Amino acid sequence: MRRLTYYIALSIDGYIAGPNDEVEFYPQSEEYSTWMAAEFPDAIPTHVRAHLGMPDTPNRHFDTIVMGRRTYTPALDAGVTSPYAHLRQYVVSTTQEQVDPDVTIVRTDPIALVRELKAEDSQLDIYLAGGGTLAGALLSEIDRLIVKLYPVVAGAGKQAFGGSAFAPTAFDLTDVTTFDGGNAVLTYDRA
Questions:
Q1: What is the average pLDDT across 66-80?
Q2: Which of 27, 103, 114, 131 gives a 20 to 30 Å CA spacing to 181?
């Protein structure tokens, strides 16, 4: 069965974005950026992959992405209606209008969607890109967390699991990769 992987950037005080969805404050070294592009090219938006000279790089981990409306909105604001054209794209939202035939808007239960996607026959997993409210709603279905930990304290902002009820959920730390400049990538698998 395929896994749902929450691949997410996080400040050391637990925020995935600032109060107004800011993300530009995350520092990263060149070593870290190079590693991310090589290890997780499938998590890089298609138009950015083209800019980096890697438009045809095969997907290594994911063939499907599930995101919330607020994760999708920055691409729309930039005029990009299909930000992950190299993946099957699902946006969970009750308000987002359909703007691209390659992006499926899901207005129903995201848990049912994820269970259907997990049951598919594929060697690649499902990328949960967020946001935090969607991750909170899908916590029971998350099999793996890949936390890109940035050496910065945000002070306030959007939580990684916003809106979720108190529900302690155990994960085992299965890998740690560190980089010059203080970035770290922590991989956790459901216990």
A1: 95
A2: 131
